[in-house]
Amino acid sequence: MKFLRNKEIIRQMTVFGVLTVLFTVAAFFIQWYCSFLVLAVAVCFCLVFLISTKKRYDRIEKLSEKLNLILHGQDFLAIDDNQEGELAILESEIYKMTVKLREHSYALQKEKIYLTDSIADISHQLRTPLTTINLIMSFMQKKNLSEEKRLEYNQEINQNLIRIDWLISSLLKISKIDAGTAGFKNEHVDVRELIDRSFDPLLIPIEIRQQTFSLEVTGKPGFMGDINWTCEALGNILKNCMEHTPEGGLLKVTAQENALYTEIIITDTGKGIDPDDMPHLFERFYKGKNASDSSTGIGLALARMIIQKQNGSIKLENRIEGGAKFTIRFYKKTES
User: Fold this and answer.
1) Given 22, 56, 74, which residue is the final one in a domain?
2) What are residue 256's DSSP bridge partners?
3) pLDDT over 80 at 209, yes or no
4) Are the C-beta atoms of residues 328 and 268 closer than 8 Å to each other?
5) Across all residues in the chain, what is the average pLDDT?
6) How far apart (Å, rounded) are the C-alpha atoms in residues 240 and 281?
7) pLDDT at position 7, please?
8) What is residue 265's predicted lDDT score, i.e. its pLDDT?
9) 239 pLDDT exceeds 80?
10) Cα 103 vs. chain centroid, distance in angstroms?
11) What whole-number distance in Å separates Cα of residue 285 and Cα of residue 287?
């Protein structure tokens, strides 16, 4: 049998054999029949030892075969032995380890797929404005191009460059948050000041669209967070609402604070969110059915990441009257 070739067993059997001979000889000098009794007990003990050792090594061999299958690609290890003892504990610990390794492998595979998809999305987002710029540059090389047309082309190039800059900047911010190096401050944020700063870059676009902005702040709400990062999040949401609100529409922001959280609600009078898009609008690079051609699909994703990093939550739903409704809450931290 294979297990008898094991050096450990050979050493144990050798030591046991020598002791048996010594005790048998010693018993013979005491009483001759005692030597036979010692020999019989030794043989029985040897048989029990060999049988138990064989069973133990058989279990180890089966466990080794299962681990070998894991190393060669099988992603499941079933430990169905309910026996007790140190070997059973070892099997249990190995099973736990394989489960963790399998979960880690799945996570790495998922991240690999996500990274591949993200690179493809980023390439697509950058290729579109770059292709447009390249096309416009070829138009500008034409002779007898009017000054008016040249200025129009320059403006289009500038808009596409701004879009590329915003995309790269947003992706860098997302990567910093993912890596945990964003450096969020923990200071008191005045909500009225936050909304004013977030809305300021949209003053001219809203005026051009002849839209109305309404702000209702109850009391002096505030929360502990980073005003600069939160301005980025709130600005992305306001920009999204503005783009989906028709000319002459209304953007409304209300804010209040209670004992549990500070709440900011942003609503618009657009078409609302398609039910199929609702579960995915906060996913990176996801573009809804009503998204504009200039949409990159990362503004809302970045907004949610920033809000959640500051002990907050964001909820999106459609209003009964029509339009979208964003509910943002920053929860107060309870001291333990």
Assistant:
1) 74
2) 263
3) yes
4) no
5) 79
6) 11
7) 63
8) 95
9) yes
10) 13
11) 6
Q: What is the pTM of this model?
A: 0.63
CA trace torsion 264, 167, 317, 248 (10° rounding): 80
Which of 277, 290, 264, 263 is CA-nearest to residue 199? 264
pLDDT tens across 301-335, in order?
889 999 999 999 999 999 888 889 999 999 987 65
Domain boundary among 179, 197, 220: 179
In this model, does residue 277 exceed pLDDT 60? yes
Burial of residue 312 (CB within 10 Å: 0-12, 13-18, 19+) is: buried
- Residue 170: give its domain's CATH number: 1.10.287.130
Provide the residue type at 20 as one letter: T
Based on DSSP, count helices (H) and strands (E) in the chain, helices before strands.
8, 7
Per-residue pLDDT for 11 more than 80? no
In the chain, which ranges are E strands?
187-190, 212-217, 222-225, 250-257, 261-268, 312-318, 324-331
Same domain, 304 and 201: yes
Per-residue tokens: 276: 């199929």
State the pairing for strand pair 212-217/261-268.
unpaired
Number of domains in the chain: 3
